[in-house]
Each structure stands twice: as C-alpha cells, then as structure tokens.
Amino acid sequence: MVRNESVARIVMFLCFGTAILSLAVHWRITTTQGQFEQPASAAGSPPGSADPVSSASTPPPQPVQRNSVQHLADAGTTDLSPKMRLLFPTQRKNFQGVSSQKSSQTEVVVNLSDRRTYVYKGGEVIASYPIAIGKEGWETPTGSFRVTDMQKYPIWQHPITNQIFPSGVDSPLGERWIGFWSDGRNAIGFHGTPDTHLLGAAISHGCLRMRNDDVRLLYEQVNIGTLVSVRD
C-alpha cells in the first residue's frame, strides 16, 4: 500500500513538472516571436498592409511607335520581289519634302509605248532618252510621282541571293540611281545599265534602264521633288 502511494506521488510530480516545462517553452516561443515582429511594426507598416516593394506601382508599358516606313514594309507583299535594293551609296540625295526651283520647272515624262523618257522644261522638250521598261508581270507603275532618292555610283544588293554588286559601269545599276517609287522595302527608278543592247525592250523588274551617259545627264537635269509622269 505504501509502495503504491509512493508511485502515485512520483507520477503526480512528473505530470506537474511536464506542465511547468510546457508553460516555460510556450512563454519562450511567444517572447521570441514578439522580438521579431517589433522591428517590422517600428518600420511604420500598419498591420495588414502590403509589402512596400511588391505593392509599388509599375508604370504601364508604353506602346511601341513604328515609323511610316515600317508600316509600308509590313503592308507590302511577303515575297522577295527582285526590285532594287540599294546599299552604302557613295553620294546620295534624299530630302523628303524638299522642292527646288529646278524641280518645279522640270518634268520627266516616261512613255512606255515609245520606250523613251522625255525631259520637259518650261513646257518644251529639252531631252529624250531610250529606255528599257518593266516586263510582263513586273510592269513599271503608271501615274504621277516625285523623285525621292538620287545616288551616284550606287551599290546594289540582290534581294533574293543577297549578292552585293559594287558600283561602277558594270554594275546592274550603272553609274546613277534616280528613285521615284517605293513600298518601303523595294524601289523603282531610273538607273544605268551595262546591257545597252536591251534598251527598247520590256526586260526589267519595273525599273527604267538607261545608258550610263544618258542617266548621268538626266541626273543633272532633275532634283529631289521633280515630277515624274509615267504613261502607257
């Protein structure tokens, strides 16, 4: 009987000690959490507020501005049409919207049926040159245009093979380039050619080929803004 009472007292002391130990552990955990939370409260963040870094407002992305040339390229055909693609001009004039006195007095008229280009000044023909024009399926566009790009000794890159042709009399573009039409990627204009035996034929991909001697003269007779009228 005495043995049983001793065992009961031992068990009672163990339970009491376990309860005291649990309270001590709980108090320690609570105190530790309070120490970590106090700096966060001292920083001025009210309870329930969002993290200031993650909640910082981010400005919305600005729309990308695309220039008109890019829009023209997007609107063009997706095939690599073998028209003119110019690179690294030695000398170049390209002033958008510029019109000189010479351009207002001079007009270039292309007669596709005659296979000739006529230069008018003051209403009179001052020069006429034989040309080669666009072949079937690649006809030279008709209408009224303005000279927009002039280059001496242009360098040409083939739009399909990407082969680069240096400037010179043997270049497919000859010694001068006078552009008057573009879709933003390809261009059409007057240029020289080493193949003078093809003048008078419909052989090009839209451009107007001329003898190098003639295109040099035409280059001096026109300017940026000169009117170019192409007729059937």
Characterize the structure shown:
About 23% of the residues have low confidence. The radius of gyration is 42 Å and the shape is rod-shaped. The strands form 4 sheets. The chain has a 5-stranded mixed beta sheet with strand order 2-8-11-12-14. It has a 5-stranded mixed beta sheet with strand order 5-4-3-15-7. The chain has 232 residues and is of the alpha+beta class. The termini are far apart. The protein is 28% helix and 27% strand. The protein folds into 2 domains: 36 residues; 152 residues, L,D-transpeptidase catalytic domain-like, CATH 2.40.440.10. The longest helix has 41 residues.
List the helices and strands and how they pair.
Layout: H1 2-42, H2 68-75, E1 86-87, E2 91-93, H3 101-105, E3 106-111, E4 116-121, E5 124-130, E6 133-134, E7 143-146, E8 149-152, E9 155-157, E10 164-165, E11 176-182, E12 187-192, E13 202-204, E14 208-210, H4 212-221, E15 227-231
Q: Provide the gyration radius in Å.
A: 42 Å
Roughly how much helix do the residues carry, as a percent range? 25-40%
Number of strands: 15
**CATH structural architecture of the largest domain:** Beta Barrel
- Beta-strand content estimate: 25-35%
Provide a compact summary of the structure.
Helix content is 28%, strand content 27%.
Which labels suit this protein?
five-stranded mixed β-sheet; L,D-transpeptidase catalytic domain-like; about 230 residues; about 30% helix; alpha+beta
